[in-house]
Amino acid sequence: MIASTGFEVPDTMQSIGMDAPGGPEVLRLQTSALPRLRPDDVLIRVAYAGVNRPDCLQRAGLYPPPPGASPLLGLEVSGEVVAVGTEVPREMIGQVVAALTPGGGYAEYCAAHWQHCLPVPEGMMLAEAAALPETLFTVWHNLFERGLARDGETVLVHGGTSGIGTTAILLAKAFDMEVIVTCGDDAKCAAATRIGADLAINYREQDFVEAVLAHTEGKGVHVVLDMVSGDYVPRNLKCLAEDGRHVTIAVLGGPRAELNMAQIMMRRLTLTGSTLRPRSDAFKAALADDIAQNAWPLFTEGELAPIMDATFPLAEAAAAHARMEQGEHIGKIVLEVAGG
User: Fold this and answer.
1) Which residues contact 161 (CB under 8 A, 6 or more apart)?
2) How many Cα atoms within 13 Å fall on the side-chain side of residue 325?
3) Measured between alpha carbons, how far is 20 from 247 in angstroms, rounded to an integer?
4) Could you give the CA distance from residue 311 to residue 326 in angstroms, rounded to a whole number?
5) Which phi and psi (to 5°) does residue 284 adopt?
6) If 0-12 CB within 10 Å is exposed, 13-18 middle and 19+ buried, where does residue 127 land?
């Protein structure tokens, strides 16, 4: 490991751990060893860490980290690179970055592959930078690469005020798409509309299939970005136009769905989906390059900014998880570690 001149890397750090899976209350502040760097890793002194739904699933014992990943929670951070592995360009030392991580973000220091980092320019808030990698990588890959969403098309996004949902709204509108979202109450629908959604449907009061078809004059949408799965899938397919694409990114409503394959054939529908965390370093590096060219400048140049909900101190990670699981948040929740 190569550290910056004049900076002494400590042996231990404060992090969030737990003794056993459970509810938010199992999370506690602890002292742990610094992460060991692989040759192609950087060590980031964390300013902020993003909180995401997979963190809650991992805390509950439902989403174990992939082999070799840190057992600590946290899939995205912002902060300063203070040390690098032997195969990383030394000029990265001292750079301020936002990074996608396979785990370990809820800590004072975090290791990340150097090619999974995006540069944070002066003037960009570090709290906002930490709120972007996980959702930006997920939305870009699934909506634009797997879903093949293009300007002039219409997309349906479930969970419109979640971190994924708000990021999808911002990006889709930036690329001249029409956006329909579903939300759980009228206040969230109003918030989604303010963010940029063309139509926000309160799924508790209205059949979203009927609302989508009415809004599109029966034509349907080109892409569905779905984090529910389960019994939503056949309903989503009814919302799709011919040659439409259905992209699954989570299975909050259950992993099984009953499908009419004849309809899928006759209407030439495409069903796909992905998970990001277990993908290879090479895949994530290529995805980061694509984002750096096409999406990251929208945020660094100030055209777009992530929708921020709340910031909690690192020691209050349990409260951050409780807020996420209550479902009242609009946009991203982050943990303040070193701040800045």
Assistant:
1) 181, 183, 188, 191, 192, 195, 307, 329, 330, 331
2) 16
3) 33
4) 16
5) -65, -35
6) buried
**What's the pLDDT at 4?**
63
Q: What pTM does this model have? A: 0.95
Q: How many other C-beta atoms lie within 10 A of the C-beta of residue 179? A: 26
3-state secondary structure of 298: helix
For position 166, what pLDDT does the model report? 98
- Torsional class of 187: left (φ above 0), alpha (ψ -120 to 50), beta (otherwise): alpha
What is the per-residue burial (b if ≥16 Cβ within 10 Å, else e) of 71-100? ebbbbbbbbbbbbbbeebeeebbebbbbbb
Displacement of CA 213 from its chain's centroid (Å)? 28
Structure tokens at 37: 């760097």
- Separation in Å, CA 165 to CA 26, 100, 179, 182, 297: 28, 18, 10, 9, 20
- Residue 213, sorted as left (phi over 0), alpha (psi -120 to 50) or beta, turns out to be alpha
Q: What is the rounded distance in angstroms from the CA atom of residue 75 to the CA atom of residue 334?
A: 11
Would you say how long the chain is, in residues?
340
At 252-286, the pLDDT tens digits run 999 999 999 999 999 999 999 999 999 999 999 99
Computed on alpha carbons and rounded to an integer, the radius of gyration of the chain in Å comes to 20
Contact 269, 245 (CB under 8 A): yes
